[in-house]
């Protein structure tokens, strides 16, 4: 199934590579982790180093827990877009 994250090219995602604006691409999905950088138990440097490329391998290699993976989904840009669209749809009804 096509997902909205496909609308972002790796080029575009890689432009968000600073502490104030940080996206990572994991398993074909785009995550905006800007607000999480300071809290990340592995440090912000590893996440910043994982921008601008497919970070799936690095993410898996770090041995993230189930709860880390659940937390990660809350930063998924597609999810955010879906929530906003759902909200607008319900308001219009
Ligand atoms: C995308 C969102 C991410 C979330 C929500 C996240 C969350 C977490 C959490 C909760 C931990 C603590 C251990 C655990 O519960 O598994 C952790 C550890 C770690 N993370 Fe992430 N992480 C993310 C992305 C990344 C990325 C892209 C890298 C790239 C290398 C990375 C590297 C690490 C490393 C190396 C540790 C181990 C720290 C240690 O035990 O010393 N993480 N992460």
UniProtKB/TrEMBL annotation:
Keyword field contains Transcription regulation: no
Transmembrane regions listed in the UniProt entry: 71-90
One Pfam entry name: Cyt-b5
Cellular localisation: Membrane
MF annotations from Gene Ontology: heme binding; metal ion binding
Cytochrome b5 heme-binding domain ranges (all copies): 5-89
Principal cellular location given in the protein's record: membrane
Keyword Cell wall biogenesis/degradation: no
Keywords: Heme, Iron, Membrane, Metal-binding, Transmembrane, Transmembrane helix
GO cellular component: membrane
Protein family: Belongs to the cytochrome b5 family.
Full protein name: Cytochrome b5 heme-binding domain-containing protein
Native source species: Castanea mollissima
């Amino acid at each position: 199934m096509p997902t909205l994250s496909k609308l972002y090219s790796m080029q575009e995602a890689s432009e968000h590579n600073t502490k104030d604006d940080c996206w990572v691409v994991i398993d074909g999905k785009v995550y905006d982790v800007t607000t999480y950088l300071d809290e990340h138990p592995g440090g912000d440097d590893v996440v910043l180093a994982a921008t601008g490329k497919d970070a799936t391998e690095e993410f898996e290699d770090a041995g993230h827990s189930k709860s880390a993976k659940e937390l990660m989904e809350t930063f998924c840009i597609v999810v955010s877009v879906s929530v906003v669209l759902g909200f607008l749809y319900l308001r219009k009804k």
